[in-house]
Design goal:
The protein is an alpha+beta fold. The protein folds into two domains: 10-133, no CATH class; 138-384, Aminoglycoside phosphotransferase (APH), C-terminal lobe (Aminoglycoside 3'-phosphotransferase, Chain: A, domain 2), CATH 3.90.1200. Helices cover 48% and strands 11% of the residues. It has 13 helices and ten strands. It has helices spanning 36-42, 48-52, 89-106, 141-148, 154-177, 198-202, 205-216, 218-230, 269-287, 295-324, 328-353, 362-376, 378-384, and strands at residues 56-60, 66-72, 78-82, 120-124, 129-133, 138-140, 235-237, 246-249, 256-258, 265-267. 44% of the residues are buried.
Length: 392
């Protein structure tokens, strides 16, 4: 269990967009920081004179993958990504992301999505190196919220709702016409209570605890099983939507760019919506004091963040629903399913929190409790937690 919502091998599909260069250049297996500039020059992405004039700055921003930011004094910079494992699952997801960007850049059907994704520059298959344009003067939505100690703003939430709806509408034709273009499947979180034998090899003691809770809590186990049976495979989705993967402008209030499309696949659009609900709720959940503080003081601190989160959730949902033209029963059914996917994402969040832990944390327990309640009463969750009124 690696804490990521992998669909059923979405990265093994290959689209018709010619996204990969494979030139047999004899590139090194790993692109080192010192090798970035020669790599860019070799691929005609950098003028050697820029280097001589010291107009290029290379910064290592690695996380799960090896990531490098290239700042240029003249011209748009680059974001370079290479998997740490050139032959395993991580390499497959980078190739999958490259295919998505190539679709947006070269397929006319991807045109509506281009405005809110980084520009595809190149993908060199021999080295498993993806290069996209750098989103200048931007920060992640999560960093903004942490720095300001505020929930997602209503305006940003509404723009995200419209953006996500555009993606889902665009992806429906791809799902039907290009059956082999992207992988298809459901999030791994839906089958988390029945892990395979490889789970015992990689799981932490904390994750074993989470699994035991899933197996013993009837609301969680029944809710996950029902979602696994109902999950749809009908359009292109992001698959890993969260505030960390949303960039907003530091000064340009209209700028919103969605990044990290490694898990893009054909799946259920309600997973993306539910994941967004979870991410908004995460700000509230992490603000809850889990110590032995006086209850009356805790209530005051909890209520304020929740109201802000509810405003963002309503703005996001209203924009998504309006753009997607969801009405009546169709809208209420979709929203109820998205609420249950939010519960599944809370389960995944508990796994992520215990990735290297020997026991589940109080926050992890809280996430599982909220998930259990949401599975038991998704309609009540929509009204009481999301504060979304009944749809008529």
């Amino acid at each position: 269990m690696n804490g990521r919502d992998m669909a059923d091998e979405p990265s093994r599909a290959r689209g018709p967009w010619g996204n990969a260069e494979s030139e047999g250049l004899g590139l090194p297996a790993r692109l080192t920081l010192d090798g970035v500039v020669p790599f860019l020059i070799r691929h005609a992405l950098l003028d050697p004179r820029e280097v001589v004039d010291q107009r290029v700055r290379v910064v290592d921003v690695s996380r799960r993958n090896s990531n490098v930011v290239v700042h240029r004094a003249a011209g748009t910079g680059y974001f370079i990504k290479q998997s740490r494992d050139a032959t395993g699952e991580m390499a497959m997801t980078v190739a999958n992301e490259a295919m998505f960007y190539a679709f947006c850049a070269h397929d006319p059907r991807g045109e509506p999505v281009r405005a809110f994704v980084p520009r595809h520059v190149t993908y060199v298959a021999d080295a498993d190196v993806l290069v996209t344009s750098l989103v200048e003067d931007a920060t992640s939505l999560w960093q903004r919220c942490e720095a300001q100690s505020t929930a997602v703003g209503v305006g940003t939430a509404a723009r995200l709702g419209s953006v996500l709806s555009t993606l889902h509408q665009t992806g429906r034709e791809v799902a039907v016409a290009d059956v082999n273009a992207f992988g298809r499947g459901a999030p791994w979180a839906l089958s988390a209570r029945t892990p395979g034998p490889e789970f015992l090899t990689h799981a932490s003691l904390g994750q074993v605890q989470v699994t035991r809770i899933l197996q013993e809590d009837t609301s969680l186990s029944a809710g996950l099983d029902a979602l696994q049976a109902e999950a749809r495979v009908e359009t292109l989705i992001h698959g890993d939507l969260k505030a960390d993967n949303i960039l907003i402008g530091r000064h340009d209030q209209a700028l919103l760019v969605v990044v990290d499309w490694e898990l893009a696949h054909i799946g259920d659009p309600a997973w993306d919506v539910g994941s967004t609900f979870f991410d908004f709720l995460r700000f509230w959940l992490t603000s809850i004091p889990l110590s032995h503080a006086r209850p009356e003081r805790s209530a005051v601190r909890i209520d304020g963040p929740l109201r802000s989160v509810q405003s963002a959730i309503r703005a996001f949902w209203d924009a998504y629903r309006s753009s997607a033209k969801l009405e009546g029963v169709e809208a209420s059914t979709f929203l109820e399913r998205a609420a249950r996917f939010c519960a599944a994402r809370l389960v995944q969040g508990a796994y992520e929190l215990t990735h290297e832990a020997t026991e589940i944390s109080r926050l992890g327990v809280l996430m599982l409790q909220v998930a259990s309640n949401m599975f038991a009463g998704p309609d009540a969750a929509v009204r009481q937690i999301f504060a979304i009124p009944h749809i008529t």
